[in-house]
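Q: What structure does this chain adopt?
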Amino acid sequence: MTGCVYPGEVAEGVTVAVIDAEFADFVRANERALLRLGWLLMADQHAAEDLLVATVTTPASVIDGDPAKVTMTVTNKGSVTTRGGSFTVVNAYALVAGQGTGFEFSGYPPSCTSVSGGLRCDVGALKPDQSAQFWQAITATGPADQIVFDVKWTNNAGVSTTFHRVVQVRAGVPSSELSSPPSSELPTPPASSLPPVSNSPSASSS
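A:
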């Protein structure tokens, strides 16, 4: 007889595989969602309405004084149109040497709402393969070496997953203080200053 056990549980099979602790924590935290996925794959195609894939991304680093933005995306990987769940930015803050430092909110889309638990972004109806995207940005107002976001995704089955994202803050000149305009805004030199252009070869001397 074979079987699997979580760390700390008693093995009852003759051959037993002990599940990795990190994987065990993932299974416990997402048990309901995994059961629904198993139901979908094995029996009921209508359960596809729960196949929502959520991602939370940030840049690896930003220059001190520039905003750091967290981007939240959910995609309907199922076969039917469904109403999604919601993202909540439960924490957004700046750190220096592990201690909190000053910051300011730099924006979020009008589809999100500031609530007592943070910033909430509700997902509307999504067709198969359709995505919805939201974001929030904050800027450190004092010396900082990290900007942190904690985002909770709750799917339409009520199962929540928390994403912890850290953006490193590096020294440099913020984009708002750069003196040189982008190349698209540089003035075109006057025609008189450009070198002459010949469209025909030079005549040979006789």
